[in-house]
Write a structure and sequence with these properties.
Blueprint lengths: L4 E5 L6 H9 L16 E10 L2 H4 L9 E3 L2 E10 L14 H8 L4 E6 L11 H24 L2 H11 L3 H8 L7 H10 L11 H15 L2 E5 L9 H4 L4 E2 L2 H12 L17 H15 L6 H12 L2 E7 L17 E4 L4 H8 L1 H5 L1 E6 L5 E2 L10 E6 L3
Parallel strand pairs: 1-4, 1-5, 5-6, 6-7, 8-12
Antiparallel strand pairs: 2-4, 3-4, 8-9, 10-11, 10-12
Length: 385
């Protein structure tokens, strides 16, 4: 399983639970009232990519996830968190539980409901305000946690003489920031070297940088099937989906009514009414302004989190493991990571015993510092205990 975990957050009744059920195939409480979700729900979603088995001409055998007509669906962790209201950062509503559920996420979907209580479609400007309200709560929570016990923390630092990087790693540990995250921030932004002299502005700036660059928040507009002029929302930076469509597609696929999760053409089994509903969904998606949720997850992982997919194999010619399973593993790695990093991702012993790698396409020998490329098929040769 990848180390990626994407949270679905937003105000109560935005459709988070419906979307979560569609993504993960997990039945959770779905209701048209606030706080249907009273505790975080964990599940598995999928990003998609073109599977290299199409080059090989033989079907793959995924150990996790699945492959559908040449599209590989790679599992990622998901969490559906309780609805956010004003004051959640201070514990109101389900605030404490909500914020705790966000600690382990690598990215956050800010899911928005475009329809108000009077059943009117909100304008892009109104939805931007709603989005900022949620994001400000998250920011206030992070800043509050980061700033807590500041004097006690800085007193200890005065005696330890550690670097700014080490100090930030300690102070932001509650948010599971890694050393590479802190290093990336410090390389791009200037902060006072002596953290004991940081003022409130610098604390807020650091918090803002974490949320925008390390833990990205993506604004996703739900109920897109009810919006006629979707382009005006896309132009304002919203990604538009339909939780109801996604759940219908999941159920239609499980019922054998469509060709696949991605290929939603109706099958012969579908009756006329079902066929018309499926064709309407298909036409809406073909408009280019309504997105499938796995495309949203894929874009978050590839663009916002800067990840690639690599396929480790035992046999670089047949692209299989010891048992003959073709391309059994698809591993999500960060851009810039190396063949040695992949070896450690497969197993610590393989990383420690790394000798060389072989490119499955070119058959070239690769050193430990070879920078991985998206869709690489790699054999690792290692001395193991």
């Amino acid at each position: 399983m990848s180390a990626i975990k994407i949270g679905i957050a937003g105000k109560p009744n935005a459709g988070k639970s419906t979307l979560f059920s569609a993504i993960t195939g997990t039945m959770v409480a779905i209701g048209n009232y606030a706080f249907t979700t009273t505790q975080p729900n964990d599940g598995i979603g999928f990003m998609d990519t073109v599977c290299p088995h199409t080059e090989l001409g033989k079907p793959c055998n995924p150990r996790r996830g699945r492959c559908e007509n040449g599209t590989r669906f790679i599992p990622v962790e998901m969490v559906d968190v309780p609805g956010l209201i004003e004051g959640s950062s201070e514990g109101r509503g389900m605030g404490n539980m909500f914020m705790d559920a966000l600690r382990d996420t690598t990215a956050i979907i800010n899911l928005l409901d475009p329809i108000n209580e009077e059943k009117q479609i909100l304008s892009p400007e109104e939805l931007i305000h709603d989005a900022e309200s949620t994001e400000n709560e998250i920011m206030r929570w992070f800043t509050s946690r980061f700033s807590s016990d500041w004097e006690k923390f800085t007193r200890k630092l005065l005696q330890s003489h550690i670097t700014l990087e080490e100090a930030l790693l300690q102070k932001a540990a509650f948010f599971n920031l890694k050393q590479k995250d802190i290093r990336e921030i410090l390389q791009k932004h200037h902060f006072t070297e002596d953290i004991t002299k940081w003022n409130e502005d610098e604390k807020r700036e650091f918090s803002s940088t974490v949320m925008s660059e390390i833990r990205p928040i993506v604004r996703v507009l739900n109920k897109g099937d009810l919006i006629e002029n979707r382009k005006q929302y896309v132009d304002k930076g919203f990604v538009i989906i339909s939780s109801d469509y996604e759940l219908s597609i999941e159920r239609a696929f499980n019922g054998g009514l469509i060709e696949g999760i991605k290929d939603i053409r109706p099958r012969e089994k579908a009756n006329q009414k079902q066929r018309e509903a499926i064709q309407k969904m298909d036409m809406d998606y073909r408009s280019g302004t309504l997105s499938r949720i796995f495309d949203v997850l894929t874009d978050i992982i590839r663009t916002d989190l800067k990840k690639i997919v690599v396929y480790p194999v035992y046999d670089e010619t047949k692209w299989c493991d010891k048992d003959g399973n073709i391309l059994p593993d698809a591993i999500i790695m960060s851009q810039g990571q190396t063949a040695e990093d992949l070896a450690y991702e497969v197993h610590t012993d393989i990383g420690e015993g790394f000798i060389r790698a072989i490119n499955g396409r070119t058959k070239m020998i690769l050193g430990r510092n070879y920078e991985l490329k998206d869709s690489d098929v790699i054999r690792i040769i290692a001395k193991t205990k």
